[in-house]
Amino acid sequence: MARNVLISVRCITMAFLLLQIALSPMPAMASDADPEQDFCVGIVASNTIVNGLVCKSPATVTVNDFVFAGLATAGNTANGAGSAVTPAFAAQFPGLNTLGISMARLDFAVGGLVAPHTHPRATEILIVIEGSLLVGFVSTSQQLFATTVNAGDVFVFPRGLLHFELNVGTGPAFAIAALNSQNPGVQAQPAALFGSGIKNAVLEKAFGLTAAQVNQIKANF
């Protein structure tokens, strides 16, 4: 009898603990690890491999390490895509190292496109400064969320999901993106599929293409 009572008490206690865990608010998880010091200005040229960049000595850090002027100048859109992306990631802006944030400037000629791509380590939020963009992402259930955004509008692309930006206005367009990782990563789907060396047989079967069609597409990459 006493043994049965003890087992019942233990079961009730365990159930109560599990209920507490289920109802407790989960801690917010950032894309990058939290910093363990005020700052860690990265050494881009270092050959030491760590998760991020090796820190330079705090004694050598200056205010200039926290300034990046690279987004002030429009990118060159005279290319096949008609677009240019200027990143301000830790590799270009070492002061971002360990801070879990980065930015990019997107410039578009008329009809310019940033091809479908993903950021495996970051959510992206985009504000249109000039022009009109058709933007969208595809969920893992293959649902498309797309709309046209204009100057002053903000759009968010959830982390890791395939997304794109296309200039649908009558003039050039310009936008600024912020991402919650110092190194969000970029994988452009066309180049990943047709420029990485995947065997033709895989692409032929996946897309219903002939060998000649696959080779024609691959020639662009």
Task: Describe what you observe in this structure.
InterPro entries: Cupin_1, Germin, Germin_Mn-BS, RmlC-like_jellyroll, RmlC_Cupin_sf. Keywords: Apoplast, Manganese, Metal-binding, Secreted, Signal. It is found in: Secreted, Extracellular space, Apoplast. This is Germin-like protein. Belongs to the germin family. This protein is α+β, with helices and mostly antiparallel strands and 221 residues long. Helix content is 20%, strand content 27%. The chain has 4 helices and 10 strands. It has a 5-stranded antiparallel sheet with strand order 1-2-9-4-7, with no helix packed on it. Strands 6-5-8-3-10 form a 5-stranded antiparallel sheet. Helix 3 packs across helix 4. The radius of gyration is 24 Å and the shape is globular. The N and C termini lie far apart (76 Å). The N terminus is likely disordered.
- What is the makeup of the main sheet? 5 strands, antiparallel
Let me know the average pLDDT.
87
* Helix residue percentage: 10-25%
In angstroms, what separates the terminal alpha carbons?
76 Å
Reading the helices and strands in chain order gives HEEEEEEEEEEHHH
What would you report as the Rg, rounded to the nearest angstrom? 24 Å
How many helices? The count is 4
Shape label: globular
Class by alpha and beta content: alpha+beta
Number of strands: 10
Poorly predicted tracts of residues: 3-9, 14-29
Across the major sheet, the strand order is 1-2-9-4-7
Percent range for β-strand residues: 25-35%
Family: Belongs to the germin family.
Pfam families: Cupin_1
Keywords: Apoplast, Manganese, Metal-binding, Secreted, Signal
Subcellular location: Secreted, Extracellular space, Apoplast
